[in-house]
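As a warm-up, study this chain.
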Amino acid sequence: MPKSNYSVGDPQAEQMIQSLVDFCDNPVVSDLLKEIMTTVVKLGLEHKDRGDFKLTNNTLKELRHSYRVFLPYREKRKVVIFGSARTAESDPSYQMALDTARTLVEKGHMIITGAGGGIMEAANRGAGRENSFGINIRLPKEQQANLHIDGDSKLMQFKYFFTRKLMFIKESAATILFPGGFGTLDEGFENLTLFQTGKCMPRPVILVEPKNGTYWESLVHLLEEEVLSRGYISTIDMNLFHICHSVEEAVQHLEDYYRYYHSLRYVKEFTVLRFTRALSPAVVEYLNHEFRDILREGDFQASEALDNEKAQNEFPDLPRLVFQFNKQHFGRLNEMILWINRNLI
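Now compare it with the structure written out below.
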């Protein structure tokens, strides 16, 4: 929530900030605009390090531009596909990435990649320009955008990895990872960390490789033998991802995730899961028995849209499941979403 007492502390500055807010003529977010402008003025008054100002400036410009690019497509579900830029066209993973992207587009999705070569090129190629986004990163050794997204208005150039990774998560509803190097693993573990800690919304995280491949199986074995066994993660955390060995299996897992589950929203002390189909009393009763361990208090309850959601016109017609989540067991929350998708009939 915006801070009502957040100010520069100078009447003249406050008047100029308010004038800029009024100039923007955007009453829905006027309180947040005032905070942003107040922060900029406070930074200008308190700080002199030019490098810090450059970082702040570039960050805001990158975010603003990417918001603008994605805005017309917000209502369409998007899938981010990661994998090595070094994957050759002759590698079976390349063809799998191409076919996966093409199939997802046929199912109504759009595709986001890092805009480079290899798996990224295959995914943009499979999706086609009309259904592709590219989030490129400027490197000392320049990463050239692949020819299937180069020159497109949906290609974005980022200086910072952290803003780039933010947009990958913010604008997508699912993550598919093919074998890759440090960058692919970085993106994959970032996704899992954000999901595990509740810093992103629930999503399918799908690890894909050809049949009889050993890349992801070997990584999972390492996690089980060296990470899980030492108690650094829990058994439930292993449910945050799913390994697939075919295009059909990967696409089906993603489609199944959103079969009935629509979205999640936190409203005060409540967690609200939205579905495209109402939950029967029998389903709610089962949840109260089998998934009570994720409740902070109270019960699972079927509900219509809450007042806060209605006020913001957030899918007011969708049925809800409302509960007080402990915000710790996100692996179990993921299990519950999958169970509901399989058992709503």
